[in-house]
Write a structure and sequence with these properties.
54% helix, alpha/beta, 13% strand, elongated
Protein backbone atom coordinates (compact mmCIF):
# COMPACT_ATOMS: atom_id res chain seq x y z
CA UNK A 1 0.00 0.00 0.00
CA UNK A 2 1.38 3.43 -0.99
CA UNK A 3 1.28 6.36 1.43
CA UNK A 4 -0.30 9.63 0.34
CA UNK A 5 -0.04 13.24 1.50
CA UNK A 6 -2.99 15.48 0.56
CA UNK A 7 -2.48 19.28 0.74
CA UNK A 8 -5.24 21.86 0.13
CA UNK A 9 -6.29 25.01 1.99
CA UNK A 10 -9.95 24.02 1.70
CA UNK A 11 -10.82 21.34 4.31
CA UNK A 12 -13.80 20.17 2.27
CA UNK A 13 -11.52 19.57 -0.75
CA UNK A 14 -9.12 17.56 1.41
CA UNK A 15 -11.97 15.46 2.81
CA UNK A 16 -13.39 14.92 -0.68
CA UNK A 17 -10.08 13.58 -2.07
CA UNK A 18 -9.53 11.45 1.04
CA UNK A 19 -12.97 9.88 0.56
CA UNK A 20 -12.23 9.07 -3.07
CA UNK A 21 -8.99 7.40 -2.04
CA UNK A 22 -10.67 5.49 0.78
CA UNK A 23 -13.52 4.22 -1.42
CA UNK A 24 -11.91 3.83 -4.86
CA UNK A 25 -8.15 3.36 -4.39
CA UNK A 26 -7.34 0.31 -2.21
CA UNK A 27 -3.61 0.59 -2.99
CA UNK A 28 -3.40 4.10 -1.50
CA UNK A 29 -3.50 5.18 2.14
CA UNK A 30 -3.62 8.81 3.30
CA UNK A 31 -1.01 9.21 6.05
CA UNK A 32 -1.15 13.01 6.38
CA UNK A 33 -3.01 16.14 5.27
CA UNK A 34 -1.92 19.78 5.18
CA UNK A 35 -3.60 23.19 4.78
CA UNK A 36 -0.65 24.94 3.10
CA UNK A 37 2.63 24.21 1.39
CA UNK A 38 4.78 24.86 4.46
CA UNK A 39 2.81 22.37 6.54
CA UNK A 40 2.82 19.98 3.59
CA UNK A 41 6.62 20.16 3.31
CA UNK A 42 7.01 19.51 7.03
CA UNK A 43 4.71 16.46 6.91
CA UNK A 44 6.39 15.17 3.76
CA UNK A 45 9.73 15.11 5.59
CA UNK A 46 8.10 13.32 8.52
CA UNK A 47 6.05 10.68 6.67
CA UNK A 48 7.96 10.37 3.34
CA UNK A 49 4.88 9.41 1.30
CA UNK A 50 5.14 7.86 -2.15
CA UNK A 51 2.47 10.17 -3.59
CA UNK A 52 1.77 13.87 -2.95
CA UNK A 53 -1.57 15.34 -4.06
CA UNK A 54 -1.63 19.10 -3.74
CA UNK A 55 -3.58 22.19 -4.71
CA UNK A 56 -1.56 24.77 -6.65
CA UNK A 57 -2.79 27.93 -4.88
CA UNK A 58 -2.37 27.80 -1.10
CA UNK A 59 -1.48 30.40 1.57
CA UNK A 60 1.95 30.66 3.27
CA UNK A 61 3.57 28.49 0.59
CA UNK A 62 2.07 27.54 -2.78
CA UNK A 63 1.81 23.99 -4.03
CA UNK A 64 4.42 24.71 -6.70
CA UNK A 65 6.95 25.99 -4.15
CA UNK A 66 6.26 23.00 -1.93
CA UNK A 67 6.86 20.60 -4.85
CA UNK A 68 10.07 22.39 -5.78
CA UNK A 69 11.43 22.02 -2.24
CA UNK A 70 10.31 18.40 -2.04
CA UNK A 71 12.24 17.64 -5.23
CA UNK A 72 15.28 19.42 -3.81
CA UNK A 73 15.37 16.88 -0.94
CA UNK A 74 16.37 14.26 -3.50
CA UNK A 75 13.41 12.01 -2.71
CA UNK A 76 11.91 10.37 -5.78
CA UNK A 77 8.16 10.89 -5.30
CA UNK A 78 5.10 11.04 -7.53
CA UNK A 79 3.19 14.35 -7.48
CA UNK A 80 -0.34 15.07 -8.68
CA UNK A 81 -1.36 18.74 -8.72
CA UNK A 82 -4.99 19.81 -8.44
CA UNK A 83 -6.11 23.30 -9.43
CA UNK A 84 -8.95 25.35 -10.81
CA UNK A 85 -6.49 27.45 -12.79
CA UNK A 86 -6.25 26.44 -16.42
CA UNK A 87 -3.43 28.74 -17.53
CA UNK A 88 -0.70 26.90 -19.40
CA UNK A 89 1.98 28.65 -17.34
CA UNK A 90 1.02 26.68 -14.27
CA UNK A 91 1.21 23.41 -16.16
CA UNK A 92 4.60 24.28 -17.65
CA UNK A 93 6.03 25.31 -14.26
CA UNK A 94 4.64 22.19 -12.62
CA UNK A 95 6.23 19.92 -15.23
CA UNK A 96 9.58 21.71 -14.76
CA UNK A 97 9.49 20.81 -11.08
CA UNK A 98 8.90 17.14 -11.90
CA UNK A 99 5.15 16.91 -11.35
CA UNK A 100 3.76 13.58 -12.55
CA UNK A 101 0.38 14.88 -13.70
CA UNK A 102 -2.08 17.77 -13.43
CA UNK A 103 -5.83 17.54 -12.82
CA UNK A 104 -8.37 20.39 -12.95
CA UNK A 105 -11.15 21.17 -10.50
CA UNK A 106 -13.86 20.16 -10.03
CA UNK A 107 -12.38 16.73 -9.41
CA UNK A 108 -14.57 13.72 -10.15
CA UNK A 109 -13.89 10.19 -8.86
CA UNK A 110 -13.48 8.93 -12.42
CA UNK A 111 -11.14 11.81 -13.33
CA UNK A 112 -9.11 11.30 -10.19
CA UNK A 113 -8.67 7.56 -10.83
CA UNK A 114 -7.78 8.28 -14.46
CA UNK A 115 -5.02 10.63 -13.27
CA UNK A 116 -3.70 8.37 -10.50
CA UNK A 117 -3.57 4.99 -12.27
CA UNK A 118 -0.66 5.91 -14.62
CA UNK A 119 1.43 6.79 -11.55
CA UNK A 120 1.46 3.24 -10.14
CA UNK A 121 4.19 1.78 -12.42
CA UNK A 122 6.67 4.43 -11.30
CA UNK A 123 5.74 3.94 -7.64
CA UNK A 124 6.09 0.17 -7.97
CA UNK A 125 9.47 0.59 -9.63
CA UNK A 126 10.70 2.80 -6.79
CA UNK A 127 9.46 0.25 -4.27
CA UNK A 128 11.22 -2.48 -6.26
CA UNK A 129 14.52 -0.59 -6.35
CA UNK A 130 14.47 0.56 -2.72
CA UNK A 131 13.59 -2.86 -1.33
CA UNK A 132 16.39 -4.38 -3.37
CA UNK A 133 18.88 -1.81 -2.10
CA UNK A 134 17.70 -2.20 1.50
CA UNK A 135 17.78 -6.00 1.56
CA UNK A 136 21.20 -6.06 -0.11
CA UNK A 137 22.50 -3.87 2.71
CA UNK A 138 20.83 -6.08 5.32
CA UNK A 139 22.47 -9.18 3.85
CA UNK A 140 25.86 -7.45 3.92
CA UNK A 141 25.41 -6.74 7.63
CA UNK A 142 25.14 -2.98 7.22
CA UNK A 143 23.14 -1.31 10.00
CA UNK A 144 19.72 -0.02 8.96
CA UNK A 145 17.37 2.33 10.77
CA UNK A 146 14.17 0.62 11.85
CA UNK A 147 12.04 3.42 10.38
CA UNK A 148 13.69 2.85 7.00
CA UNK A 149 12.88 -0.87 7.15
CA UNK A 150 9.29 -0.12 8.19
CA UNK A 151 8.96 2.27 5.27
CA UNK A 152 9.39 -0.54 2.74
CA UNK A 153 8.23 -3.52 4.81
CA UNK A 154 4.99 -2.34 6.30
CA UNK A 155 3.71 -5.49 8.04
CA UNK A 156 4.35 -6.18 11.73
CA UNK A 157 6.10 -9.56 11.33
CA UNK A 158 7.57 -11.79 8.60
CA UNK A 159 8.54 -15.41 8.01
CA UNK A 160 12.04 -15.84 6.59
CA UNK A 161 13.85 -18.48 4.55
CA UNK A 162 16.72 -18.54 2.08
CA UNK A 163 17.31 -21.30 -0.49
CA UNK A 164 20.69 -21.59 -2.19
CA UNK A 165 21.35 -23.83 -5.20
CA UNK A 166 24.88 -25.25 -5.25
CA UNK A 167 27.80 -23.10 -4.02
CA UNK A 168 28.15 -19.59 -2.63
CA UNK A 169 28.03 -16.57 -4.97
CA UNK A 170 31.24 -15.37 -6.54
CA UNK A 171 32.91 -12.83 -4.28
CA UNK A 172 36.04 -11.68 -6.10
CA UNK A 173 35.62 -11.81 -9.87
CA UNK A 174 33.24 -9.52 -11.77
CA UNK A 175 30.99 -11.81 -13.76
CA UNK A 176 28.03 -9.44 -14.15
CA UNK A 177 25.68 -11.89 -12.46
CA UNK A 178 22.24 -10.36 -11.97
CA UNK A 179 20.38 -9.91 -8.72
CA UNK A 180 16.81 -11.16 -8.76
CA UNK A 181 13.77 -9.73 -7.04
CA UNK A 182 10.08 -10.61 -7.08
CA UNK A 183 7.50 -8.68 -9.00
CA UNK A 184 6.71 -5.52 -6.95
CA UNK A 185 3.00 -6.22 -6.64
CA UNK A 186 3.41 -9.72 -5.19
CA UNK A 187 2.62 -10.30 -1.51
CA UNK A 188 5.75 -12.35 -0.85
CA UNK A 189 9.03 -10.52 -1.30
CA UNK A 190 11.70 -12.62 -3.01
CA UNK A 191 15.31 -11.50 -3.46
CA UNK A 192 18.44 -13.22 -4.71
CA UNK A 193 22.05 -12.11 -4.97
CA UNK A 194 22.14 -14.12 -8.19
CA UNK A 195 19.99 -16.58 -10.14
CA UNK A 196 20.72 -19.48 -7.81
CA UNK A 197 19.31 -17.93 -4.67
CA UNK A 198 15.96 -16.96 -3.22
CA UNK A 199 15.39 -15.11 0.05
CA UNK A 200 11.70 -15.24 0.99
CA UNK A 201 10.09 -12.65 3.24
CA UNK A 202 6.40 -13.35 3.74
CA UNK A 203 4.06 -11.29 5.95
CA UNK A 204 2.79 -13.29 8.91
CA UNK A 205 -0.78 -12.17 8.26
CA UNK A 206 -0.68 -13.64 4.73
CA UNK A 207 0.17 -17.24 5.65
CA UNK A 208 0.37 -19.60 8.60
CA UNK A 209 3.65 -20.90 9.95
CA UNK A 210 2.88 -24.44 8.76
CA UNK A 211 1.91 -23.31 5.26
CA UNK A 212 5.05 -21.21 4.93
CA UNK A 213 7.20 -24.21 5.90
CA UNK A 214 5.32 -26.35 3.38
CA UNK A 215 5.83 -23.69 0.70
CA UNK A 216 9.58 -23.70 1.35
CA UNK A 217 9.62 -27.52 1.10
CA UNK A 218 7.86 -27.36 -2.27
CA UNK A 219 10.23 -24.67 -3.52
CA UNK A 220 13.20 -26.74 -2.37
CA UNK A 221 11.92 -29.87 -4.13
CA UNK A 222 11.33 -27.86 -7.30
CA UNK A 223 14.86 -26.47 -7.26
CA UNK A 224 16.40 -29.90 -6.66
CA UNK A 225 15.50 -30.78 -10.24
CA UNK A 226 17.96 -28.20 -11.53
CA UNK A 227 20.64 -28.20 -8.84
CA UNK A 228 22.93 -30.91 -7.50
CA UNK A 229 22.74 -29.81 -3.87
CA UNK A 230 20.57 -27.35 -1.95
CA UNK A 231 21.17 -25.39 1.24
CA UNK A 232 18.12 -24.04 3.07
CA UNK A 233 18.16 -21.71 6.08
CA UNK A 234 14.73 -21.43 7.66
CA UNK A 235 13.38 -19.29 10.51
CA UNK A 236 10.60 -21.37 12.00
CA UNK A 237 8.86 -18.50 13.82
CA UNK A 238 7.87 -15.07 12.53
CA UNK A 239 10.28 -12.17 13.00
CA UNK A 240 9.09 -8.72 14.01
CA UNK A 241 9.87 -6.00 11.50
CA UNK A 242 12.20 -4.44 14.05
CA UNK A 243 14.27 -7.66 14.09
CA UNK A 244 14.21 -8.16 10.32
CA UNK A 245 17.69 -6.75 9.74
CA UNK A 246 19.29 -8.77 12.54
CA UNK A 247 17.77 -12.10 11.50
CA UNK A 248 18.39 -11.59 7.78
CA UNK A 249 22.07 -11.01 8.53
CA UNK A 250 22.08 -14.05 10.84
CA UNK A 251 20.52 -16.29 8.17
CA UNK A 252 23.18 -15.38 5.64
CA UNK A 253 25.84 -15.81 8.30
CA UNK A 254 24.63 -19.38 8.80
CA UNK A 255 24.52 -19.94 5.04
CA UNK A 256 28.12 -18.76 4.62
CA UNK A 257 29.29 -20.65 7.71
CA UNK A 258 27.71 -24.02 6.93
CA UNK A 259 27.14 -24.45 3.18
CA UNK A 260 29.13 -27.53 2.15
CA UNK A 261 29.87 -28.56 -1.44
CA UNK A 262 27.83 -31.61 -2.44
CA UNK A 263 25.75 -31.66 0.76
CA UNK A 264 22.01 -30.96 0.75
CA UNK A 265 20.93 -29.63 4.13
CA UNK A 266 18.23 -27.62 5.89
CA UNK A 267 19.43 -25.35 8.68
CA UNK A 268 16.82 -24.22 11.20
CA UNK A 269 17.64 -20.83 12.66
CA UNK A 270 16.39 -20.32 16.18
CA UNK A 271 17.32 -17.75 18.80
CA UNK A 272 19.96 -20.05 20.28
CA UNK A 273 21.77 -20.02 16.93
CA UNK A 274 22.45 -16.35 17.61
CA UNK A 275 24.70 -17.28 20.53
CA UNK A 276 28.46 -16.96 20.39
CA UNK A 277 30.27 -19.66 18.46
CA UNK A 278 32.02 -21.08 21.54
CA UNK A 279 28.62 -21.67 23.17
CA UNK A 280 27.46 -24.07 20.46
CA UNK A 281 27.78 -27.69 21.66
CA UNK A 282 29.89 -30.14 19.65
CA UNK A 283 31.53 -27.58 17.38
CA UNK A 284 34.92 -27.66 19.06
CA UNK A 285 35.36 -31.37 18.32
CA UNK A 286 34.17 -30.95 14.73
CA UNK A 287 36.60 -28.08 14.17
CA UNK A 288 39.49 -30.15 15.52
CA UNK A 289 38.62 -33.03 13.19
CA UNK A 290 38.65 -30.69 10.21
CA UNK A 291 41.98 -29.19 11.20
CA UNK A 292 43.51 -32.67 11.53
CA UNK A 293 42.23 -33.42 8.03
CA UNK A 294 43.90 -30.26 6.73
CA UNK A 295 47.20 -30.96 8.46
CA UNK A 296 47.26 -34.53 7.17
CA UNK A 297 46.59 -33.42 3.59
CA UNK A 298 49.35 -30.78 3.65
CA UNK A 299 51.87 -33.21 5.19
CA UNK A 300 51.22 -35.78 2.47
CA UNK A 301 51.45 -33.09 -0.21
CA UNK A 302 54.98 -32.17 0.92
CA UNK A 303 56.08 -35.79 0.58
CA UNK A 304 54.52 -36.17 -2.88
CA UNK A 305 56.10 -32.94 -4.11
CA UNK A 306 59.53 -34.11 -2.97
CA UNK A 307 58.98 -37.38 -4.82
CA UNK A 308 57.44 -35.60 -7.85
CA UNK A 309 54.61 -38.12 -7.65
CA UNK A 310 52.00 -36.26 -9.69
CA UNK A 311 49.53 -39.12 -9.59
CA UNK A 312 49.50 -39.14 -5.80
CA UNK A 313 49.10 -35.34 -5.76
CA UNK A 314 45.92 -35.72 -7.81
CA UNK A 315 44.74 -38.58 -5.62
CA UNK A 316 45.42 -36.41 -2.58
CA UNK A 317 43.40 -33.56 -4.07
CA UNK A 318 40.46 -35.88 -4.68
CA UNK A 319 40.70 -37.36 -1.18
CA UNK A 320 40.86 -33.91 0.40
CA UNK A 321 37.66 -32.82 -1.38
CA UNK A 322 35.70 -36.05 -0.84
CA UNK A 323 36.60 -36.29 2.84
CA UNK A 324 35.60 -32.66 3.28
CA UNK A 325 32.15 -33.58 1.97
CA UNK A 326 31.97 -36.51 4.38
CA UNK A 327 32.84 -34.21 7.28
CA UNK A 328 30.38 -31.58 5.98
CA UNK A 329 33.21 -29.05 5.88
CA UNK A 330 31.96 -25.58 4.93
CA UNK A 331 32.80 -24.31 1.46
CA UNK A 332 34.75 -21.40 2.95
CA UNK A 333 36.89 -23.83 4.98
CA UNK A 334 37.50 -25.97 1.90
CA UNK A 335 38.41 -22.93 -0.19
CA UNK A 336 40.95 -21.82 2.40
CA UNK A 337 42.46 -25.31 2.59
CA UNK A 338 42.68 -25.73 -1.16
CA UNK A 339 44.26 -22.32 -1.58
CA UNK A 340 46.99 -23.48 0.80
CA UNK A 341 47.29 -26.69 -1.22
CA UNK A 342 47.64 -24.82 -4.51
CA UNK A 343 49.90 -22.15 -3.05
CA UNK A 344 52.38 -24.80 -1.93
CA UNK A 345 52.35 -26.38 -5.40
CA UNK A 346 52.78 -22.98 -7.07
CA UNK A 347 55.75 -22.23 -4.83
CA UNK A 348 57.31 -25.60 -5.58
CA UNK A 349 57.05 -25.09 -9.35
CA UNK A 350 58.39 -21.55 -9.19
CA UNK A 351 55.15 -19.64 -9.69
CA UNK A 352 55.21 -19.97 -13.46
CA UNK A 353 51.44 -19.67 -13.93
CA UNK A 354 49.23 -16.58 -14.11
CA UNK A 355 48.03 -16.19 -10.51
CA UNK A 356 45.12 -13.90 -11.42
CA UNK A 357 43.90 -16.28 -14.11
CA UNK A 358 44.23 -19.18 -11.70
CA UNK A 359 42.16 -17.33 -9.07
CA UNK A 360 39.36 -16.76 -11.60
CA UNK A 361 39.42 -20.47 -12.54
CA UNK A 362 39.50 -21.43 -8.86
CA UNK A 363 36.43 -19.38 -8.02
CA UNK A 364 34.62 -20.62 -11.12
CA UNK A 365 35.30 -24.20 -10.04
CA UNK A 366 33.50 -23.67 -6.74
CA UNK A 367 30.66 -21.67 -8.23
CA UNK A 368 29.89 -24.16 -11.00
CA UNK A 369 30.43 -27.41 -9.10
CA UNK A 370 27.25 -29.33 -8.39
CA UNK A 371 29.12 -32.08 -6.53
CA UNK A 372 32.48 -32.87 -5.00
CA UNK A 373 33.39 -34.87 -8.09
CA UNK A 374 32.69 -31.91 -10.38
CA UNK A 375 34.77 -29.70 -8.11
CA UNK A 376 37.66 -32.16 -8.30
CA UNK A 377 37.43 -32.40 -12.09
CA UNK A 378 37.63 -28.61 -12.46
CA UNK A 379 40.47 -28.17 -9.96
CA UNK A 380 42.35 -31.07 -11.52
CA UNK A 381 42.34 -29.27 -14.87
CA UNK A 382 43.94 -26.27 -13.15
CA UNK A 383 46.48 -28.36 -11.29
CA UNK A 384 47.82 -30.34 -14.25
CA UNK A 385 48.84 -27.11 -15.97
CA UNK A 386 51.81 -26.98 -13.61
CA UNK A 387 53.45 -30.05 -15.06
CA UNK A 388 51.64 -30.89 -18.28
CA UNK A 389 50.78 -29.02 -21.47
CA UNK A 390 47.37 -30.00 -22.78
CA UNK A 391 47.91 -29.61 -26.52
CA UNK A 392 44.31 -30.37 -27.39
CA UNK A 393 43.19 -27.48 -25.19
CA UNK A 394 45.68 -25.19 -26.91
CA UNK A 395 44.13 -26.01 -30.29
CA UNK A 396 40.69 -25.41 -28.88
CA UNK A 397 41.67 -22.04 -27.45
CA UNK A 398 40.09 -19.89 -30.19
CA UNK A 399 37.09 -17.66 -30.90
CA UNK A 400 35.95 -20.17 -33.53
CA UNK A 401 35.68 -22.93 -30.94
CA UNK A 402 33.65 -20.66 -28.66
CA UNK A 403 31.34 -19.84 -31.56
CA UNK A 404 30.67 -23.57 -32.08
CA UNK A 405 29.70 -23.84 -28.41
CA UNK A 406 27.35 -20.84 -28.72
CA UNK A 407 25.71 -22.34 -31.80
CA UNK A 408 25.15 -25.57 -29.91
CA UNK A 409 23.60 -23.64 -27.01
CA UNK A 410 21.27 -21.70 -29.36
CA UNK A 411 20.05 -24.98 -30.85
CA UNK A 412 19.29 -26.51 -27.45
CA UNK A 413 17.86 -23.59 -25.43
CA UNK A 414 14.58 -25.42 -24.79
CA UNK A 415 16.40 -28.41 -23.31
CA UNK A 416 18.09 -28.93 -19.96
CA UNK A 417 21.27 -27.03 -20.69
CA UNK A 418 23.93 -26.61 -18.01
CA UNK A 419 27.63 -25.89 -17.99
CA UNK A 420 28.24 -29.53 -17.04
CA UNK A 421 26.22 -30.86 -20.01
CA UNK A 422 28.00 -28.52 -22.45
CA UNK A 423 31.38 -29.57 -21.06
CA UNK A 424 30.49 -33.22 -21.59
CA UNK A 425 29.43 -32.47 -25.16
CA UNK A 426 32.70 -30.69 -26.02
CA UNK A 427 35.03 -32.67 -23.72
CA UNK A 428 36.41 -29.72 -21.76
CA UNK A 429 36.41 -28.85 -18.06
CA UNK A 430 34.04 -26.31 -16.55
CA UNK A 431 36.90 -24.02 -15.55
CA UNK A 432 38.32 -24.11 -19.07
CA UNK A 433 34.91 -23.43 -20.64
CA UNK A 434 34.34 -20.39 -18.43
CA UNK A 435 37.84 -19.19 -19.26
CA UNK A 436 36.95 -19.37 -22.98
CA UNK A 437 33.77 -17.36 -22.43
CA UNK A 438 35.58 -14.65 -20.50
CA UNK A 439 38.55 -14.55 -22.86
CA UNK A 440 36.62 -14.31 -26.14
CA UNK A 441 33.02 -13.55 -25.11
CA UNK A 442 33.66 -11.11 -22.23
CA UNK A 443 31.02 -12.85 -20.11
CA UNK A 444 30.53 -16.04 -18.10
CA UNK A 445 28.75 -19.13 -19.42
CA UNK A 446 25.73 -18.48 -17.17
CA UNK A 447 25.40 -14.90 -18.36
CA UNK A 448 25.60 -16.00 -21.99
CA UNK A 449 22.99 -18.74 -21.51
CA UNK A 450 20.61 -16.48 -19.59
CA UNK A 451 20.81 -13.66 -22.14
CA UNK A 452 20.36 -16.06 -25.05
CA UNK A 453 17.21 -17.50 -23.47
CA UNK A 454 15.77 -14.05 -22.78
CA UNK A 455 16.48 -12.92 -26.35
CA UNK A 456 14.75 -16.03 -27.69
CA UNK A 457 11.77 -15.37 -25.40
CA UNK A 458 11.53 -11.81 -26.72
CA UNK A 459 11.53 -13.10 -30.30
CA UNK A 460 8.81 -15.63 -29.50
CA UNK A 461 6.59 -13.04 -27.80
CA UNK A 462 7.03 -10.57 -30.66
CA UNK A 463 5.94 -13.23 -33.16
CA UNK A 464 3.19 -14.67 -30.93
CA UNK A 465 1.82 -11.94 -28.62
CA UNK A 466 -1.11 -14.17 -27.61
CA UNK A 467 1.08 -17.01 -26.28
CA UNK A 468 0.86 -17.77 -22.56
CA UNK A 469 3.93 -16.87 -20.52
CA UNK A 470 4.28 -20.43 -19.18
CA UNK A 471 4.51 -21.71 -22.75
CA UNK A 472 7.12 -19.09 -23.66
CA UNK A 473 9.11 -20.06 -20.57
CA UNK A 474 9.03 -23.75 -21.52
CA UNK A 475 10.19 -22.98 -25.06
CA UNK A 476 13.37 -21.33 -23.76
CA UNK A 477 14.21 -23.90 -21.10
CA UNK A 478 12.46 -22.64 -17.94
CA UNK A 479 10.05 -25.02 -16.22
CA UNK A 480 9.07 -22.45 -13.58
CA UNK A 481 7.03 -19.57 -15.03
CA UNK A 482 7.62 -17.33 -12.02
CA UNK A 483 11.37 -17.88 -12.03
CA UNK A 484 11.38 -17.11 -15.76
CA UNK A 485 9.49 -13.86 -15.03
CA UNK A 486 12.09 -12.84 -12.46
CA UNK A 487 14.94 -13.55 -14.88
CA UNK A 488 13.17 -11.73 -17.72
CA UNK A 489 12.50 -8.64 -15.62
CA UNK A 490 16.05 -8.56 -14.25
CA UNK A 491 17.52 -8.65 -17.78
CA UNK A 492 15.06 -6.42 -19.67
CA UNK A 493 13.62 -4.20 -16.94
CA UNK A 494 10.07 -5.26 -17.85
CA UNK A 495 7.94 -8.23 -16.83
CA UNK A 496 6.92 -10.69 -19.59
CA UNK A 497 3.26 -9.71 -19.17
CA UNK A 498 4.14 -6.05 -19.71
CA UNK A 499 6.49 -6.65 -22.62
CA UNK A 500 5.64 -4.37 -25.60
CA UNK A 501 3.25 -5.95 -28.05
CA UNK A 502 1.79 -8.52 -25.63
CA UNK A 503 -1.95 -8.69 -25.17
CA UNK A 504 -2.14 -11.50 -22.58
Amino acid sequence: MFRVLVADDEPSAVEYICNIIRMKCPLLSVVATAENGEEGLMKFRKYLPELVISDVKMPVMSGLDMVRQIKETGEDVSVLLVSGYQEFEYVRTAMKYGVSDYILKPVTPAGFIHAVEPLFPAMYQRLYDQRKKLVRSMIMGEAQKEEEIRRYFTEDAYYLAVIRENGLPRRFTDTREIELISEPEQTMFVYGRDEREALYLCPKQAITREKFAEFIRRETDKKKKDANFITVVLKTSAVSVGELCRFTEAMYGEMNRRLSVGVTQTIVLEENRMEKKEDRPGEEGQLREKELHREEAMTKLERWLEQRDYGMILDGLRDLILRAEGLTCPQLWLEQTLRQFFSRIRHYFGGSTDILEEEVLFEDAFYEAGSSKELYDSLRSILVRYWKTDRESVKLDSPEFLEKIREYMDQHLAQELTIASVCREFHVSQSYLNLLFRKYGMESFNTCLRNARVRRAQEIMERNPQMFIKDVAAMVGYRDQFYFSRIFRAVTGASPSGYPGRSV
